[in-house]
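In this supplementary section we document a worked example of the pipeline. Step one takes a protein sequence of length 65 as its only input; no multiple sequence alignment statistics are reported here. Step two produces a three-dimensional model, which step three serialises into structure tokens for compact storage. The input and output of this example are shown verbatim.
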Amino acid sequence: MPKVRLSGTVLGHDDPGRTVRARLLYLLFGAGWDIYNSNGDQRITLSNIERKIIEADAFVFTPGA
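The serialised model returned by step three reads:
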């Protein structure tokens, strides 16, 4: 199963990016992707972005990145 990592954080229930992220998760999951950081609770920083990209088959920048 291919792996995709999402960047960006979800700042709570009222976060406007939450709806966009939910749609993206639905599409990726339906297409058979294994999703990393689906909850939006992991920060992608300059010090760890290279490692995070290498660990996945795809990397998607989302709102809040």
